[in-house]
Amino acid sequence: MDKPGTVVVVGGTCELGKHLAQHYVDKGHPVVVTSRDLGRAQATAAELGGNCTGLALDLAHPHGIASALEGLEDVQHLALVALHRDDNKVREYKIDEALKLVTLKLVGYTECIHVLSAKMREDASILIFGGLAAQQPYPGSTTITTVNGGVSTLINSLALELSPVRVNAIHPGQVGDTPAWLSKPKEVIDNLISRTALGRLVTIEDVTHAAVFLLENRGVTGVNLRVDGGRMMK
Ligand SMILES: NC(=O)c1ccc[n+]([C@@H]2O[C@H](COP(=O)([O-])OP(=O)(O)OC[C@H]3O[C@@H](n4cnc5c(N)ncnc54)[C@H](OP(=O)(O)O)[C@@H]3O)[C@@H](O)[C@H]2O)c1
Q1: What is the spatial distance between Cα 87 and Cα 173, in angstroms, rounded to a whole number?
Q2: Distance CA 25, CA 97 (A)
Q3: Ligand 1 atom nearest residue 172's Cα
Q4: Which residue has its alpha carbon closest to ligand 1 atom 35?
Q5: Which of ligand 1's atoms lies nearest the C-alpha of 100?
């Protein structure tokens, strides 16, 4: 059997990134987690244990990504999880906030893939995190709605160009046990729950399970997978 290849989690300091990284640490892979801050990346790597290391990169400054990733080799899975939260209503439009998110998700993610594509195993896989704001906009979601739409089409050209490397996207609904939602008032959460078919918000565990499926299933490429507890049905 091949030795486990390197798993890179860009945005490995957030709960979704950490949980995915932990899954692969526990399976014996070398894992690299990134943050904008080297100390935070290293602290997360130490917390995850095993053969996990941290490195710093800023997706909103994509010219620096190549040098940040240059030491990596033998990449088996790449997960792009990082996010800049841009709450941006068009009547009060904040250009710099929008630029950060658009650059991070559409250019920064793509630059990571560009740099690591030369270091990937032939059967490697890439997973891009999007979300549901493309189909379910809300006031202030202008940039995230646009960017999630971009993620859902970006995978098509990447899956074609990088084949046999597989490229998929995951689109979680509100993940109830992430900090973003744990801090919301009960009325907000109850309202969201009432709009799911399952009668609950999805969990980090649900998203990790689906992420691992997309990273590992050898027949799946160019797929956008919603993990939302049936949120689109209501
Ligand atoms: N949470 C949800 O309910 C939910 C729902 C739908 C989709 N998602 C998707 O799931 C992913 C994770 O969401 P989350 O809520 O867990 O995120 P989060 O808690 O806001 O964490 C954001 C992550 O992105 C990193 N980051 C921020 N700016 C960066 C930059 N300029 N360059 C590089 N890294 C940067 C942060 O690392 P440092 O701060 O350490 O740099 C952190 O690891 C996102 O892609 C999001 O679109 C989440």
Answers
A1: 17
A2: 34
A3: 6
A4: 82
A5: 31
Q: Which of 8, 10, 14, 126 to mutate to test the pocket of ligand 1 (most atoms within 8 A of CB)?
A: 14
Measured by CA distance, the residue closest to atom 7 of ligand 1 is 131
Pairing of strands 166-172, 6-10: unpaired
Ligand 1 center from residue 183 Cα (angstroms): 16
Question: What gap in Å lies between CA 95 and CA 165, rounded to an integer?
Answer: 35
Whole-Å CA distances, 219 to 51, 68, 176, 214: 29, 31, 30, 9
pLDDT per residue, tens digit, the chain (234 aa), is 689 999 999 999 999 999 999 999 999 999 999 999 999 999 999 999 999 999 999 999 999 999 999 999 999 999 999 999 999 999 999 999 999 999 999 999 999 999 999 999 999 999 999 999 999 999 999 999 999 999 999 999 999 999 999 999 999 999 999 999 999 999 999 999 999 999 999 999 999 999 999 999 999 999 999 999 998 665
> In ligand 1, which atom is closest to the CA atom of 144?
47
Question: DSSP 3-state assignment of 226?
Answer: strand
From CA 16, how far away is CA 204, in angstroms rounded?
6
Q: How many residues does the chain have?
A: 234
